[in-house]
Every structure is written in C-alpha cells, then in structure tokens.
Amino acid sequence: MANNAGSFVIDGLSCATNVELLAQQAELYRPAHLAVATEEARSRLVKLLPSGYAPSIGIGASGYEDLAKVPEAETVLSAQSGAAGLAGTLSAALAGKVLCLANKESLVLAGGLLRHLCAETGAVILPVDSEHNALFECLAGRSDPIESLILTASGGPFLDMPREKLASVRPEDALKHPNWSMGKKITIDSATMMNKGLEVIEACHLFGVKPDKIEILIHPQSLIHSMVRYKDGSVLAQAAVPDMRLPIAHCLFWPDFRASVVPNIDFTTCGALTFRKPDFDLFPCLRIALQAYAQGHDACCVVNTANEVAVELFLAGRISFLDIPKCIEDALNHVDVHTTNAWKSRSVTELVLCVKAHIEEIQERTRSYVCASLS
Ligand code: MG
After folding, report:
1. Residues 111 and 131: beta-carbon distance below 8 Å
2. Res. 5 pLDDT band, cuts 50 70 90
3. If you measure from the C-alpha of residue 199 to the centroid of ligand 1, how many angstroms do you get, rounded to a whole number?
4. How many angstroms does the Cα of residue 134 sit away from the middle of ligand 1?
5. 3-state secondary structure of 346
6. Any bridge partners for residue 57, and if so which?
7. What would be the CATH architecture of the domain defined by 296-375?
8. Per-chain residues with Cβ under 5 A from ion ligand 1
9. Mean pLDDT of all residues in 23-31
10. Which residues on neighbouring strands pair with residue 14, listed in sequence order?
C-alpha cells in the first residue's frame, strides 16, 4: 500500500484460495499485483476478473514474497494464517517496508531475524494483534520504567469447563469463540490457550522484554485488550469493543489517527469487568510455549509446527482436544534441533535464505515426528 495523505492506494492484494472475495476487492481497487496460494486458485481467479484488467498474479510462497516487496508500496499488511505467513513477512522486512504484522507466527518462528532485519533495512513492525496493539498504544510516547506488560486473554470457550469434559469437546465446540470472530486455526489456538502462549513470545520480541516481565490475565469480557504496569504503581489500559478494525486502523494510519472506527463502549451497560489468573494445569499449552521460549528459537519452531499439525488433526477428528498439548509437548521433548551457522552469512539476503532453510528443516522434522508418533 502507498499512503497518500491519509488515503490509500492499494498496490497489491492476496488471498489463500478465497478467490471470489479477492476478485471483488480487486475489481474495486484495481491493484497491479495479486497473489494466491495455488495454480488452481489462479485459474479460478482469472475467470472472475473484469475484462481489460490484467494484474500480475503470483502463486504460493514466491508469489507472496514478490507481492510483499513491490517497490511502489510503503506499507505491507501481513495477515496470512500460521507459518505460511513467514515468507511474505520476511520479504517485506528485507525490503524495508512499514510492516503491519497480524501474523504472530512470523515472530515466533523468526523473531530474532525480524528484529535484525528492522535494524539493517529500516523496516518498522507495527503490531496488529489486538493485545500487542494495545500495549503499543499504552507505551506510546512514554519512556518511564515498566514493571510488567499485562496480556489479557478471554480464556476461550472452555474457560470454566471441568477437565474431564474437555476430553470430549468437538471441533465445532472449540470453533465457537465467545467474543472474537476469527479464522479456524487461531480460534482453536484460543480454546487451547496456545494463542496466548504464542502471544507471550510475540510480545518478548516486539517489546524486548523477558517472559518474567509479562503477566497473563484472564479477562472474559475482552474489553481491555492489554495493560502496561509502570514502576510507579500506575497501570495504563487500552479498552475498546472487541473488533479487529481498530488495531488494523491504528497500524494502517499510524502515526495518524482515524476517527469513528468502532462503536463506543458504554461503561454503564457493559457489565462488570472481571480478571483472574490463568490455570496452567487446565491449559498446558501456556506452560509449553514458555518452556519453548526459554529453550530458544528452534524449540519455538518445533512448538509452533507441532501445534499447527495437532490443530489440523483435531479439526479432522483424528485426535482429541486434550491430545493437542500432549502432541506438542511430546514433539518439544523429542524432535532433535541443532544450531545453525546462518548468522555467519555475509549479507542480509543470504542470512534470510539460510534461516528460512533452517526453519523449514525443523518444520519438516517436526511434522514427520508428530505424524509418525500417531500412526
Ligand atoms: Mg491476539
């Protein structure tokens, strides 16, 4: 996107396979570049585009990479689901873009590399994830010493469910998030609370803090999106109705301000705001994610990959809800990781290629391990 005095020129758009929606958006904005996941999606898309409009259409990871670095765009919104978002994110960071990052897996898989790229290329990461966007807002313009960052969590649909009942929950139960409307993978991650575990890792990379400076607080109403506790005892909170349009607008218009993005909260009718500690026994994914962060990048990569595989298997009805954390922890304890010498690379381009190859190798090894352990 090129930002032209508060309005946007859309230079490129992408989707995975929802080409009907992409075609509608492309007809409206006429970007010069599109990208989709597969050749089959490309064929369907081409038939839906209006005559006389012939954008370039990239395919797969290389298509998303090319789209994320088109020279005319200043800002790139990286919002693919899961590890597939890494290619586009790294490409935008390498090209020095303002990177509005909704794909937390990019930071989980390659947080150190992304921070390095920002320093080298001048890329800037703006957090679209609602909690991190709230922290970004609460930290803006202040250099006061921080006691902790407080990440709020809705607790998902199974917050008060006894453990014995969790064993028999079905995918359709887990896909009913109480407050947010999101994609399947992140909705299951919310139900297991792996989403919050990944968000702790995301916050560590974004804000340069250690996990012991991050508090997780269950807040079932999802009105306070996160808070910053300062050393003087004061706490700044960011509150809004749960609606992703707000963090997206904060990032797209940053550093400018956009009015009337979401409806106001009515504090006289919204009911009580409640808070409690998370239950690490009921939601072991939180503990597993923190253990992975303590072990390093490669362990985070194993956990992220094992989680993606486990969520797919759960959605396909092949494992139970309680098997998800078991699968992930088993992979974390058994998949061999080895150090990479990618950091000896001579250029940032070479570094990105080497780290990507290293991540792909760990992903492959983790997928093989999880699938073999279940067969
Ligand atoms: Mg979030």
Report:
1. no
2. very low
3. 7
4. 10
5. coil
6. 34
7. Orthogonal Bundle (1.10)
8. 129-131
9. 97
10. 35
Q: What is the pLDDT of residues 274-303, one digit of tens each?
A: 999 999 999 999 999 999 999 999 999 999
Pair of tokens at residue 114 = 């992304």
Dist. CA 4–CA 7, nearest whole Å: 5
First vs last Cα of the chain: how many Å apart?
A: 46
Hey, where are the domains in the chain?
2-128, 129-284, 296-375
How many angstroms does the Cα of residue 53 sit away from the middle of ligand 1? Answer: 37
307 φ, ψ to 5°?
-65, -45
Banded pLDDT at 2 (limits 50, 70, 90): low
Residue pair 23/4 in contact (Cβ under 8 Å)? The answer is no
Q: Tell me how far the alpha carbon of residue 349 lies from the centroid of ligand 1, in angstroms.
A: 30
Upper half-sphere CA count for residue 276 (Cβ side, 13 Å): 10
Residue 232, number of CB atoms within 10 A of its CB = 8
Q: Which of 301, 307, 297 is nearest to 193 (CA)?
A: 307
- Report phi then psi at 253, rounded to 5: -95, -10
CA 244 / ligand 1 centre spacing (Å): 10
User: How much distance in Å is there from the Cα of 133 to the middle of ligand 1?
Assistant: 9
2-128: what fold?
Answer: Rossmann fold (3.40.50)
Angstrom CA distances, 67 to 8, 39, 75, 91, 311, stand at: 17, 16, 12, 9, 28
